[in-house]
């Protein structure tokens, strides 16, 4: 099966006064139709820049290179800006974190919904309006026709995010990138928005990249996961395998950090990862996680750590052997 | 002295908000008759969606806002009769966002020592010593004393905020979403620190959060707020094992635990949180409640108290039988 999106060796470098910031380093993955690929990591790990790199929406100073970047049969590495703006919103679209700041407050919802379709598909405003009403209905917004005349500030956060989803779907894209779509929402609304996204994605057979820092969301929504740290993918795999047998020390640490009602003992110490996330500026040698890792040894300082693939689609970036990592995982889970 | 260290009695706070041009002002009941008792050395979790009045409660307890009615007792004395400084000695706060709650133009040293200077405790040498002590306690390296907030990471800033709150050795600390703007690995560090400090100084916490997993982990008692009312209050274990109120049940099902075998939960809460200016008649939760009947649309339920639990629902009796 041809993947909707194939990324190989994506790098994003940002020149700063202090040196070059290697924000994304050698990220490779592919997204299949009807499947959800999750990028998870803490702030500054490069997950959002990966998405912006794919969309070619990076800040002007940033430099992107990739050995392969294909959306369906189209090569995006060579695409010019004009071609990209034809693709964005039509073949792949993005849902941003903060619906209030990504909507234009001066235009009505109807206006903003129709714009993409009129721009890309050259249809009349009437047809565009019909599609807008249809989609608003689909994302669960009642009284869609009257909503079209409203402005973003008249809607609640949950409704705005539903509207953003409808907007992303206007042209029937084959890939949707959702960057922290529920971070600004209440927990009760979060579950609704996520199940809406999941059901729409299955129904319309789209590929989805979901970017989040919340491992709870990843576990419930993703098919495949890539854990990112310092611009690199440190572990990747099918969601159940990754959660049941996390191999990389960072993934193990992250999972030990979150309190889970009924599983973690109340009031007991949570596992924590000591230290801070380093900024990947300048020349980098060795493993970027070594200073925070319980298991680091001297080789971690020097050796280049590659992604070690243990089975197709399951890989981790650590010098420790697969067996040792599994044992560590079992130990950290039994704690 | 036993008895609750902090008690609120039928506290209400009404804001007058403009309802639109030429329409004059209308009352908004942000907090509507809340009675809570916080035991010495316990952790009370206050949970609810945004706009339910939990942060207003914090502001009221800190005496930053005047009550519309009711009263708040600190150690048995009404705080409205106390001087602001005496309240501040006993009651401190850690805010949600360490990026905006620290003065960017003051050094860490002067942020942390400000309470000492305001209360005129000790002298300059004593301040330095105390600041260094408290920085050790919260795990801030001493070399950061002369740094400014913009040079610190989110976790370090939150540690500065905690140090500032603790330097007066208060009895109660109100934590208003202490970890929601932090990364997961840093969140765990701060939660561990809060627990250690509680044991070390015998603190009482009021933990305001929308993250139920965090509340479950830290709190000994939990109060669930909805539209300015406490709809359910119980001991943490009890509440998480047997939630009674339909709203609590919905909140608990929407917690996403990292378990890939479970799918996304189906909540029946409908889309909208009601507008607090026009609260629904009767039980304010009825438009979103799967069990609502005609009675709920017309009559507001009164709180039912049994053993150590409070539930505000007409169907407390039938709800007992259900286990989620």
Tags for this entry?
heterodimer, A: 335 residues, alpha/beta, Rossmann fold, 36% helix, B: 324 residues, eight-stranded mixed beta sheet, 31% helix
Characterization of the model:
The model of chain A has no long low-confidence stretch (mean pLDDT 89). Chain A has 335 residues and is an alpha/beta fold. Chain A is built from 13 helices and 13 strands. Chain A has a single domain, classed as Rossmann fold, CATH 3.40.50.300. Helices cover 36% and strands 22% of the residues of chain A. An eight-stranded mixed β-sheet of chain A has the order 7-8-9-3-10-11-13-12, sandwiched between helices. In chain A, strands 1, 2, 4, 5 and 6 form a five-stranded antiparallel β-sheet that branches. The longest helix of chain A is centred in the middle third of the chain and has 18 residues, at 187-204. With 324 residues, chain B is an alpha/beta fold. Chain B has a domain at 40-66 and 78-272: P-loop containing nucleotide triphosphate hydrolases (Rossmann fold). Chain B is 31% helix and 23% strand. Chain B contains eleven helices and twelve strands. In chain B, a hairpin with a 2-residue loop joins β11 (304-306) and β12 (309-311). In chain B, α3 (108-118) packs parallel to α5, α4 (124-137) crosses α5 and α5 runs parallel beside α6 (184-201). The longest helix of chain B is centred in the middle third of the chain and has 18 residues, at 184-201. Chain B is globular and about 70 Å long. Chains A and B meet through α8, α9, α10 and α11 of A and α6, α7, α8 and α9 of B.
């Amino acid at each position: 099966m041809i993947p909707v999106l194939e990324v190989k060796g994506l790098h994003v470098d940002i020149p700063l006064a202090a040196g070059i910031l290697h924000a994304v380093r050698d990220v490779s993955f592919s997204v299949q139709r009807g499947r959800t690929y999750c990028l998870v990591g803490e702030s500054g790990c490069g997950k959002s820049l990966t998405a912006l790199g794919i969309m070619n929406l990076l800040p002007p100073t940033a430099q992107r290179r990739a050995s392969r970047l294909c959306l369906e049969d189209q090569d995006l590495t060579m695409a010019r800006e004009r071609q990209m703006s034809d693709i964005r919103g039509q073949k792949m679209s993005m849902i941003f974190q903060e619906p209030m700041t990504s909507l234009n407050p001066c235009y009505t919802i109807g206006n903003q919904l129709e714009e993409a379709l009129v721009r890309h598909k050259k249809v009349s405003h009437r047809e565009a309006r019909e599609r807008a009403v249809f989609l608003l209905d689909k994302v669960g917004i009642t009284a869609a026709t009257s909503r079209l005349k409203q402005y973003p500030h008249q809607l609640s956060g949950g409704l705005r995010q539903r509207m953003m989803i409808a907007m992303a779907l206007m042209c029937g894209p084959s890939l949707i990138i959702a960057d922290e779509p529920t971070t600004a929402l209440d927990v009760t609304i979060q579950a609704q928005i996520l199940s809406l996204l999941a059901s729409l994605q299955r129904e319309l057979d789209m590929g989805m990249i979901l970017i989040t820092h919340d491992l709870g969301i990843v576990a419930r929504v993703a098919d495949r996961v890539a854990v990112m740290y310092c611009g690199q993918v440190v572990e990747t795999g099918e969601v159940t395998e990754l959660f049941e047998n996390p191999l990389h020390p960072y993934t193990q640490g992250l999972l030990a950090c979150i309190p889970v009602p009924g599983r973690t003992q109340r009031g007991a110490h949570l596992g924590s990862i000591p230290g801070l996330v380093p900024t990947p500026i300048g020349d980098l040698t060795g493993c970027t996680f070594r200073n925070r890792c319980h298991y680091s040894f001297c080789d971690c300082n020097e050796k280049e750590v590659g992604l070690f693939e243990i089975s197709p689609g399951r890989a981790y970036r650590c010098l420790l052997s697969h067996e040792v990592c599994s044992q560590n995982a079992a130990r950290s889970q039994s704690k | 002295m036993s008895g609750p260290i902090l008690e609120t009695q039928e506290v209400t706070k009404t804001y007058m908000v403009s309802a639109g041009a030429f329409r004059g002002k209308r009352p908004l009941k942000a907090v509507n008759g809340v009675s809570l008792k916080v035991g010495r050395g316990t952790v009370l979790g206050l949970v609810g969606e945004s706009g339910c009045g939990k942060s207003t409660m914090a502001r009221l307890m800190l005496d930053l806002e005047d009550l519309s009615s009711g009263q708040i007792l600190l150690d048995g004395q009404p705080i409205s009769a106390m001087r602001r400084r005496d309240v501040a000695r006993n009651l401190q706060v850690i805010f949600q966002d360490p990026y905006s709650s620290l003065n960017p133009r003051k050094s860490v040293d002067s942020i942390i020592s400000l309470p000492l200077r305001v209360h005129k405790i000790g002298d300059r040498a004593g301040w330095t010593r105390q600041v260094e002590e408290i920085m050790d306690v919260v795990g801030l390296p001493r070399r950061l004393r002369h740094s400014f907030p913009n040079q610190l990471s989110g976790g370090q800033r939150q540690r500065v905020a905690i140090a500032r709150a603790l330097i007066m050795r208060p009895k109660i600390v109100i934590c208003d979403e202490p970890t929601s703007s932090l990364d997961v690995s840093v969140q765990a560090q701060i939660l561990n620190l809060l627990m250690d400090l509680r044991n070390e100084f015998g603190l009482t916490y009021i933990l305001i959060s929308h993250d139920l997993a965090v509340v479950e982990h830290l709190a000994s008692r939990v109060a669930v707020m909805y539209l300015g009312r406490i709809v359910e209050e119980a001991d943490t274990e009890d509440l998480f094992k047997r939630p009674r109120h339909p709203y609590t049940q919905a909140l608990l099902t929407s917690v996403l635990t990292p378990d890939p075998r479970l799918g996304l939960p189906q909540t029946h809460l409908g889309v909208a949180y009601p507008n607090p200016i026009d609260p629904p008649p009767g039980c304010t939760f009825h438009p979103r409640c799967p069990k609502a009947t005609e009675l709920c649309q017309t009559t507001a339920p009164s709180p039912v108290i049994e053993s150590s639990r409070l539930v505000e629902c007409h169907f407390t009796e039938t709800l007992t039988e259900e286990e989620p």
